Automatic annotation (TrEMBL):
<feature type="domain" description="Histidine kinase">
    <location>
        <begin position="296"/>
        <end position="534"/>
    </location>
</feature>
<keyword id="KW-0597">Phosphoprotein</keyword>
<dbReference type="InterPro" id="IPR001789">
    <property type="entry name" value="Sig_transdc_resp-reg_receiver"/>
</dbReference>
<protein>
    <recommendedName>
        <fullName>histidine kinase</fullName>
        <ecNumber>2.7.13.3</ecNumber>
    </recommendedName>
</protein>
<keyword id="KW-0175">Coiled coil</keyword>
<dbReference type="InterPro" id="IPR035965">
    <property type="entry name" value="PAS-like_dom_sf"/>
</dbReference>
<dbReference type="InterPro" id="IPR036890">
    <property type="entry name" value="HATPase_C_sf"/>
</dbReference>
<dbReference type="InterPro" id="IPR003661">
    <property type="entry name" value="HisK_dim/P_dom"/>
</dbReference>
<dbReference type="Pfam" id="PF00072">
    <property type="entry name" value="Response_reg"/>
</dbReference>
<feature type="domain" description="Response regulatory">
    <location>
        <begin position="7"/>
        <end position="121"/>
    </location>
</feature>
<dbReference type="Pfam" id="PF02518">
    <property type="entry name" value="HATPase_c"/>
</dbReference>
<feature type="coiled-coil region">
    <location>
        <begin position="124"/>
        <end position="155"/>
    </location>
</feature>
<dbReference type="InterPro" id="IPR011006">
    <property type="entry name" value="CheY-like_superfamily"/>
</dbReference>
<dbReference type="InterPro" id="IPR005467">
    <property type="entry name" value="His_kinase_dom"/>
</dbReference>
<dbReference type="GO" id="GO:0000155">
    <property type="term" value="F:phosphorelay sensor kinase activity"/>
</dbReference>
<dbReference type="InterPro" id="IPR000014">
    <property type="entry name" value="PAS"/>
</dbReference>
<dbReference type="InterPro" id="IPR003594">
    <property type="entry name" value="HATPase_dom"/>
</dbReference>
Length: 542
């Protein structure tokens, strides 16, 4: 059966806030009810019983504090999220004491906060309902036991053994394990008899055992113990994250501790992967912003550079036309100088200066061209394949200043007649810039060198790019984690640990691979394999 649609009531006297929050919630698939004040909101709660209530605290007619107090007293199963202005901590504390389940500040600028708050409150409501259901069921079993003890025990143990969650019964206050269901053996990996030989805290991390013992041994009456992310360990000492719910129950004439455990390891891993993906998305936005900035800078540089190139050519012509006149003058005045130089040295010096201006202008033009190309969207290229020699040359051009600042020995070895490879030139250039930058940062001095080479991939039919440096090298342990997100040996100098992870992802999306060979003190080789470009309906481009 499909999950029921959740209904959320928004109570706020400000129409703009009310409608804005409603729109956000509707976009997330919730049915939204609206109320302009606490009185109408309470009436809607009584009629329609929403799944969740968002209420402002400062409102006319009936303020949010009274709404929280009345709902907590008369409809305690409805979760309440209080809302008020930034800095009103006292109001938040008062609302929580009156029964609010959570508190968010206005204005609401982070939609993720709403999503996380709703998920957390609804999960808590689910746990509370589940806990109440368990308690209610156990109370029914106890009542039934007064009439038919044997039948009651059979029903309880049927539930106990068939439940998907691990359930462990302990004696209080020693926390000695009295019984465990099959799911407990599955969770911790111990046979049933070995579980019975333990005390309950044994299965948890040493740092947690003190708080666990204190919390569980003091459970009385209707109180319960709840921990959502509790570190534990299985029989192989592998780390687990479990959700623990525990309360005391009466079985026969004995009060025992009922502990229900659910494996939350996979959930935590998925949450971490989501956080990693969000971080990568932020980094991608940063790179896009840098691309836009590079495009703007390239445009601004291009105009004055064109003026330099034009004026250089014009000045060179003026100089050539003036040279005979100056030569005649120098014959009449033998000591004639220009710019402090004897006239005999001026022609060669001027030619060298004009050539330097022209070469410098052409170099600026080449760098500007590379910046423009680098900042263009990927979709503009790549459909017809990528020339890896051109990609390498472009990356080196952009890094030329950094290369000359760090090393005196930088070599390019580009194999001729390489086949086009599959992918987008801009993305491959991004990978090369990152790898060459890393190689430069690994060099201990200017005398150490880097060789960037290309070759045909004989086995796969594509291309191979190798960046070999004479840097410090890496250990096997570092190599094993090199492409993991956020892993970096340069955190103290600003490294984010995302460059190689993103580069590896880009190459895998191109069907290629990135591998590293390294030895401490002897440098590192980064090797890129890229598949050949394939035209639809044909084989690889020769």
């Amino acid at each position: 059966m499909p999950e029921p649609i959740m209904t959320i009531l928004v109570i706020d006297d400000e129409p703009m806030v009310r409608e804005s929050l409603a729109s956000c919630l509707e976009d997330q698939g919730y049915v939204v009810l609206l109320a302009p004040d606490g009185c109408q909101g309470f009436e809607i709660c009584c009629r329609q019983r929403p799944s969740l209530v968002f209420t402002d605290l400062r409102m006319p007619v009936m303020d949010g504090f009274e709404v929280v107090e009345r709902l907590t007293r008369e409809l305690p199963e409805i979760p309440i999220v209080a809302m008020s202005g930034v800095g009103d901590v006292g109001e938040a504390i008062r609302a929580i004491r009156l029964g609010a389940w959570a508190y968010i500040t206005k204005p609401i600028t982070n939609l993720d906060e709403i999503t996380i708050t709703i998920a957390r409150v609804l999960e808590r409501a689910r746990l509370v309902r589940e806990n109440l259901e368990y308690r209610h069921r156990l109370e029914q079993l106890v009542e039934e036991r007064t009439r038919q003890l044997k039948e009651s025990e059979q029903r309880f143990y049927q539930f106990f053994f068939q439940h998907d969650d691990a359930i462990i019964l302990c004696r209080l206050p020693e926390l000695v394990i009295l019984d465990a269901n099959p799911a407990s053996s599955k969770l911790f990996g111990y046979p049933y008899q070995e579980i019975l030989a333990r005390k309950f805290p044994f299965f948890f991390a040493t740092a947690e055992q003190g708080d666990l013992i204190a919390g569980l041994t003091h459970l009385t009456g209707e109180s319960f113990f709840l921990r959502e992310h509790l570190p534990a360990k299985d029989c192989a000492d592998a780390e687990l994250i479990v959700s623990l719910k525990a309360w005391s129950i009466t079985l026969g004439n004995e009060t025992v501790l009922y502990c229900s455990l659910r494996n939350a390891t996979e959930k935590i891993m998925l949450e971490k992967q989501l956080q990693d993906s969000q971080t990568r998305l932020i980094q991608a936005h940063k790179l896009a912003s840098i691309g836009m900035l590079a495009s703007g800078i390239a445009h601004e540089i291009n105009n004055p550079n064109n003026l330099i190139a034009f004026n250089t050519d014009l000045l060179a012509e003026v100089w050539r036309d003036s040279l005979p006149v100056l030569a005649d003058y120098s014959h009449v005045h033998p000591g004639f100088t220009l710019g402090g130089l004897p006239f005999g040295e001026v022609p060669a010096t001027a030619d060298r200066l004009f050539k330097g201006l022209a070469d410098g202008s052409r170099r600026i033009d080449a760098i500007v061209g590379q910046l423009k190309q680098y900042s263009r969207p990927c979709a503009a290229g790549g459909a017809g394949g990528c020339d890896i020699n051109r990609a390498v040359t472009s990356a080196v051009t952009l890094l030329d200043h950094q290369i000359k600042r760090i090393t005196d020995r930088f070599e390019l070895e580009l194999a001729p007649n390489l086949p086009p490879v599959r992918g987008y030139s801009q993305q491959i250039e991004q990978v090369l810039i990152n790898l060459i930058s890393n190689a430069l940062q690994a060099l201990p001095g200017r005398e150490r060198g880097i060789v960037v080479s290309t070759a045909r991939d004989g086995d796969r039919g594509g291309g191979v790019i190798t960046i070999a440096d004479e840097g410090r090298g890496m250990t096997r342990e570092t190599l094993a984690h090199l492409t993991e997100p956020f892993f970096s040996t340069r955190h103290e100098s600003g490294g984010t640990g995302l460059g190689l992870s993103i580069s590896d992802s880009i190459l895998r999306e191109h069907g290629g691979t990135l591998c590293f060979e390294s030895e401490e003190g002897k440098g590192t080789r980064a090797i890129i394999h890229l598949p050949p470009c394939v035209v639809q309906g044909q084989g690889a481009i020769p």
